[in-house]
Fold 3-deoxy-8-phosphooctulonate synthase.
Amino acid sequence: MNTLEYLKSSSSDNFFLLAGPCVIEGEEMALDIAENICAITSELNIPYVFKGSYRKANRSRIDSFTGIGDEKALRILRKVRDTFGVPVVTDIHTAEEAEMAAEYVDILQIPAFLCRQTDLLVAAAKTGRMVNIKKGQFLSPEAMEHAVTKIRDAGNDMVAVTERGTTFGYQDLIVDYRGIPAMQKFGVPVILDATHSLQQPNQPAGVTGGRPDLIETIARAGIATGVDGLFIETHRNPSCAKSDGANMLPLAQLPTLLRRLSVIRAAINGF
């Protein structure tokens, strides 16, 4: 089956999950996180995609960590896929990166700030890989239909859209749950990013803040609204993470969260 079919493959009609660290910091950490998430998602019949950025291009400060090297990180992503038999997803930032990353991963993710970049979207689509477009913090849900159309017009029907909050003032984001059914009308899976939606950008120190204590609140509301999938960044020790530690979920908390969310999903399906 292709990647899109896999995401819809849960026999219990559960949500699917994109989860992993913000950025690949090394092979051991990636395999450790993947092993733990595979165990709980297998138990709960949640189709799972391992997430990890091979490079972070959008950094507030020039001295921020960006990665361990493109090829090295991409090889680790491929090893996760080969070891655990799950798809993997990573971000791309330029049209030239699309073909390179597609050799290693199953889903190419378009960062929110780049969701209107036509050449990037078309290049991702033409690789034949599934494309996950994050909704720009500056766009309405309805405006994302144009991004979806670009992927389809380039000959690729495997596309998803991710809600990750809308800019609210200078240092906060807000999730408008009306956007989930609005974007589902495009005929694509809609994913809720329960971690980046809680970012607090534009901090004076140049390091983005966050509210990880509200991840479960955001995720519960998304499941209740009928979202197709969830996106969660997680790390064994977020305080030591090299990127986005302020809004990541501690890995030890993920099993309990997924069990609770699966119960809510089952209740919603009962309606």
The chain has a mean pLDDT of 93. The first strand starts at residue 16 and ends at 20. The radius of gyration is 17 Å. The CA atoms of residues 60 and 206 lie 5 Å apart.
